[in-house]
Write a structure and sequence with these properties.
The chain is of the alpha+beta class. The protein is about 15% helix and about 40% strand. The N and C termini lie far apart (about 115 Å).
Length: about 200
């Protein structure tokens, strides 16, 4: 009995685990900053049309000029001007201007930025495109008023426009009237400059 009791007295009971305050520990751990999710990228607006072709008549200070306007939306604007004979053709892209003036056999080839800078025009490609199809733009040079809208392939296009121009080279009104307007038809943008034409230099290039 003494032997057994001695053996029992030498055994140690295991210690109970000390409980950990998990809430206190969690509070002492620095939490990483939460980065808010990025806002969704707005979807690009679809082009209202692919191409536009329209005849026009423009009256400026008693002078009437006829011609045609062609567009490949956001890519090309092409304009011809006639007065009994063809006077000029102009082709504008988002970064370039090409023009051929037939009566004096001269031409312009320059960047759109140089054209804007030299002629003090605050209209870029998109603003000019918007002006021609009846969308309001902010400009210190041209104020536009539109009327007589017609719908083509679910797109409203003005048949008449009044442009009030205030510029160092011209101040006055230009009245524009469209006819025979077509959308989304195959078209071309021809502009040929004769090899003997003289260049009107605009800008540095």
């Amino acid at each position: 009995m003494v032997l057994f009791s001695g053996c029992r007295s030498s055994r140690r009971l295991p210690k109970k685990p000390v409980p950990i305050d998990t809430v206190a520990v969690a509070d002492t751990i620095a939490k990483p900053p939460v980065t808010p999710p990025a806002p969704p990228t707005p979807a690009a607006q679809p082009a209202p049309f692919k191409t536009l072709v329209t005849n026009y008549t423009c009256q400026v200070k008693g002078l009437t000029v006829n011609g045609q306007i062609r567009m490949n939306y956001d890519k090309t604007i092409w304009i011809s001007a006639n007065k009994i004979i063809e006077l000029a053709r102009v082709k504008i892209t988002p970064d370039s201007v090409f023009a051929y003036i037939k009566p004096n056999n001269t031409y312009i080839r320059c960047s759109l930025k140089d054209f804007q800078r030299v002629y003090k025009i605050d209209l870029g490609y998109k603003e000019l495109q918007s002006l021609l199809i009846g969308k309001a733009v902010q400009s210190s040079v041209i104020k536009a008023t539109y009327s007589d809208f017609a719908t083509f392939d679910k797109v409203k296009v003005p048949m008449q426009a009044l442009f009030n121009v205030t510029h160092r080279q011209f101040t006055g009104d230009a009245k524009l009237k469209y006819s025979k307007t077509e959308l989304n038809q195959a078209t071309t943008f021809p502009l040929t400059i004769p090899s003997n034409a003289s260049r009107i230099k605009v800008g540095t290039k």
